[in-house]
Amino acid sequence: MNAPLPDVPEVRVVGLPQLTAGFDLVERLGLDMHLKVHGPLEPVPGEQLAQLAEDISLNGRGGAGFPFARKLRAVAKSAIRRGVRPVVVVNASEGEPACRKDTVLVNRAPHLVLDGALLAAEALGARTLVVAVTRDSTEASIRAAFAERGLADRRGPALRARVVRTPERMVSGEASSVIRAAGGGPAMPPGRKVRASDTGIGGAPTLLSNAETYAQLAVAARVGPRRYSHSGLPTEPGTVLLTLSGAVARPMVVEVPTGVPLRYVLQLAGAPPVPQGVLTGGYHGSWLDAAAAHDAVISRQSLAALGGALGAGAILPIGPETCPLGEALRIANWLAAETSGQCGPCRLGLPAAAGGLADVMNGGGPAALEALREVTGAVKGRGACKHPDGSARFLTSTVNAFTDDLAAHVLGGGCGRPTLGLLPLPGDGYQEEGIPSGEKVLVDWTLCEGHGLCADLIPELIRLGADGYPAVADATVPMHLRGRAQRAVRRCPALALRIEGAPAELPALTAPARKALGSGRG
Question: Could you tell me which residue ranges the NADH-ubiquinone oxidoreductase 51kDa subunit iron-sulphur binding domain spans (predicted)?
């Protein structure tokens, strides 16, 4: 199946809309309609804004869940100490195939996101605003919103605003990758831990949060903490945006108050009445079994207590008709290919972990399962970014959640079910660095002699099996690995390796028209 999610799927709401207010009126809220729906917004002083975020328990909605108030105060403190104006960044990069909530917000309610970002910028005295995006539609919407507000990246205005385009890759949406890209570097983690609140874009203290976080801040600033807390749980007030896909009647983004039962949200999307499992938090998240999914409510605390994760708000149920280990293997292969190739735990550990899961499925027995556990454990905490940790969490959760299926594969001849490909992945030719790629590495087994040179050249895609012959990941060759993949093909002594699926013809690149804009918030 493997149908990629549309940029802007169907949007539904449970209860009264806050972030999605006005979506029933127009497809996109321009500035005039935005003000009619949400009303004007006055600036909020720095400490008052931090207190507001604290009063509503606003945590980052991009996956990590870091308290926004602490982040805001840390940036302010660093900026005052150094005498440097900070930078505000909206991270609307969604490189994960199962997430669309930030893309929906930026495409349909861009001014609500900008409201929150501009509140933070004014509170901090920032003079630079950066919005990072991954998709054409998202970039077009935010540029139009800049034009409607008279914001531009040029000298003179009190606030300079610009858009940064990042590749549609898992690691490119990581905070340090976005900061590096905004500074003119590659959209990859720097390989060392640096606090953005101390040293971010251009060395300045940088406040970075995702699009939903800023939109939530804008809603709370308008209605106040008491009214904001009328919906949701007392400990986690307000609403959250969820992206539902997998075994559902139709993928959708849902705005829902915290505390609503997960089973109700799944029913809304047309999921199976008794799902075999529900992946929570996306591809860096964790599985819930059917019993846990029935008991869970939508909240960070509830999901974590049952072994799940809210993460970036992706919810993916699967039904009983598919092999859960096969579904997980597809994702594990994709995660392994998404490495930026900068550290061993990611470049070598993730392919080995995906290969270990394949060995388990192929009847490798208890030894294969033990090897999988060892390599997954060895990856944790040793990467240059959070990609290895998140991928290891996904694999560990898979092994722990589907014990019956695991036993069938380890001790018997498998579970007997096909892998339907219910979990969405990018389609062939998805963009990385803005260039389509649909190539795969294939082995001609009638020629292969098991020299193993290919596994040395591209261990991210090929490893040697227990029999000494290569095992190839069922994943598209990322653009950053094309050179090494082509080298492996050329150097194969038996001429057994080939690449199939030539990249699509590149579209003509045209610079976007630049229009002289005024300054100010409008």
Answer: 325-369
